[in-house]
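Re: weekly structure request thread

Next one in the queue (181 aa):
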Amino acid sequence: MVVAENADDLLRYLQRRVTAPEDAADLLGRVLLTLWEGAARVPTVDPDARMWCFGIARNILREHYRHSKKRLALADDLRDHLRDSAIRDNAADTAAEAQIRARAVRTAVLALDEKYRELVMLVHWDGFSLAEAARLLALNESTARTRHARALRRLEKSLSEHAAAHHIDHAGMRPEYVTGL
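Done, posted below.
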């Protein structure tokens, strides 16, 4: 029951954190297997069960990062080059401009230090409250609030710099736009 209720959210959680869709599907498979193997340990309270599922997903994702960091470095460089080429080719189109803003926000979020990035992603992309994200990350709530505020200021600065460098209207690139990805 817990798995069925959270599988779609877990997949989106993983999709937002990996570069290849097939990686997210593979990771979801590992998460589901782990959940099935540990079914006896699943908390019985719904919010706790959801947090437990996301904790499993986070641990599997961290393991994935450790194993794939070097392998993906070259692919990331090529992807950045292709993305920059596409941005220059499509800058006049409204849909392309929205994609540019989305990419800029995603790039800015991914450029944050891990302690800020994961908090922002949990709150703005995965729908956790700041208190729930703090709990998931084993942080004091006041520490999470401070980090979240700092992260938003850093995102604002990064997006302002990106907008200025690419002659883009900064209005569509505020940190609030983070939620739209």
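Residues 46-90 form the longest helix (45 residues). The mean pLDDT is 80.
Next request, please.
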